[in-house]
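Give me structure tokens for this 131-residue protein.
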Amino acid sequence: MLSTQPGVARRVLRREQVESVQARAELLLGPVDAWAVCPHGPHDACDCRPPATGLVTAACRALALPPALVTVVAHGDPLIEAALTAGARAVQVPDSARLPADPCPPCLPCLPSVCRSADGPEQAAHLLLHG
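Here you go.
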């Protein structure tokens, strides 16, 4: 599971709170094989904050999988861009505040097998399981 947590950098959240949310997610969803968390803010120079690829590649390393075998499901363009740049596939799910005008970030190749758009989590799961 990939997660950006800029609240840690702003000191609005503690790392322990993020880990508590992770534990709750695993209680509700089942075990997660890998967590990759970027605790940096937008102005920090790091290679894990999307659209940089560090978060995606860290998850791939933790799973011992090449990016080509990984699909990232995300609502934000920066994480979609990070996934595609790293060589992974992507499924974009709109967040509750907006519907995407374009299923792929601008200036990136968008091939149906690489970047797909879903109406919500259920359709994203269907795309992951059935293409």
